[in-house]
Each structure stands twice: as structure tokens, then as C-alpha cells.
Fold this protein.
Amino acid sequence: MSHAADSPNPKADLKAFQKYFTDKFPKLKLKDFVNGPYSMDEGLYKQWREKEEFPPYEFALAAGKELFNKPFKNGKTFADCFPNKGIGIRQNYPTFDEKQGKVVTLELAVNQCLENNGEKPFSYTKDEMASVTAYMAFTSRGKPFNIKIPKDPRALAAFENGKRYFYTRRGQLNFSCASCHVQIPGDHIRAEVLAPALGILNAMPIYRSAWGGMGTTSRRFTSCNSQVRAVPLTPQDDEYRDLEYYLSYVSNGLPISGPGARP
């Protein structure tokens, strides 16, 4: 796998990233990685299939659809803010917005839509944000991640910054994101089976039994930082958005499976 000090080459990074995981887990199909820990453990996989008959995220889908279609005070809705009226577009986020000069995640775009229409933004970590993005992800199920890096040096810099964040150790435990999700996916930390980094964002947002509810990508990033006893960044900080950009890009081609459920 190439290192941050090498010349930036996202396409080569994607190829090396996916090859690493398919070589490490030769029995898995590429699309299976979006199932996270369930693809790593036969017992968990069986439990998950049974759980999917009555998925714990179902309540969020219903709430998200209602919020998505509920008119703002000015009469507009989320559909007025997004391409294709917001349906079947999850696979295109995060995107690099050249006008704003930064990575725009789906969560950020949802809140920009609210604020541009005079509405109060949602919390980035759960509740309404998790529900709306769950509904939007559901309309994209099966569509492959298709993250673009335009010919803009700021976009490439954002990708490289996200990659740097992913491999940088931090916190009292001195863990990087890669320590758990590249080096030892499939192994246990306490009772938890570690998910592979490949496809990890395809299932977002997720219902986690450990949370007792739904959470967003922002919540997952901040909770991971806390678990290694690092000080979490503010949700949707530049570095978190760049991290999401990097991780989503290297999962290009894998299908959206969100909303997901995790132990």
C-alpha cells in the first residue's frame, strides 16, 4: 500500500487498498465487505440475517421519509436542494464542491439545505440527521460508490489529508484508524469484531446495539476517537470530512448498503 509521502495517486491508492483486503480475505467477494463485521464471522452473519427480517433501523427509515418530504416554512423541501430531488444520490457523497472549495458530505449538505431555507440545522450525530440520511441511503441501496476527485489541487489535497488522518496514530492508546480497520479486521477487541475499512462507510448511517439507536458517520468518527482515548474533533470538522472523502473514494465500486445495523 502506498504511503502519504509518495506522489499523490488516488487511483493507485484505491487499487492497492482493495487488493490488500481481497488478498487478506480471499473467500470474500468485494461486495461482501460492506457488511462489516458480519462478513468476518459466520456466527454473527447468521444472527444478522435473522435480524434483517425485522431490521432495527426500520423506524428511522419511516421517520426519515417523513422528514425528507415535510415542507419547510417557505414551502420547499429537501428535494429542492439536491440533484434528482435527493433520491438515489447517496453514492455520490462526499463530493468536492469547487465553489465552496471543500469536501461536502451528505450530512453537511443536509444542514446546508436546512440553513439555506431558514431552518434550524440538525445535530450531526443522531436523531433527525440519522433518519434523513438513512432514508436517502436506502434509496441508493445497491448503487456503487462513485466518488469523484476533480482536477482541482484542493480536492487532491483533501484526499491526501484524509489519508494522512486515517494512518496517523493518536490518543492515549496510540491507535490510528488503520490500526483496527486495516491491520486486524476480523479480530476481536473485547466482544467486538473489528470491521474492515473497505466498505465501512457504505453502510452508514447505522443502528448500533451498543448505542441503542441510530448514529451517523460523524458519530462513528467521534466515538472511534474516544475509544482510543483521543480528543474527538467537532463533527464535520475539515479533517473528518477529508477522512470521509478518502475512505469513500477507496471503496468506489462497492454498493451502498445503508442504513446498516451493527452489534
Remarks:
- The mean pLDDT is 93.
- The chain has nine helices and seven strands.
- The radius of gyration is 18 Å.
- The beta strands are 95-97, 102-104, 188-189, 192-193, 206-208, 213-215, 260-262.
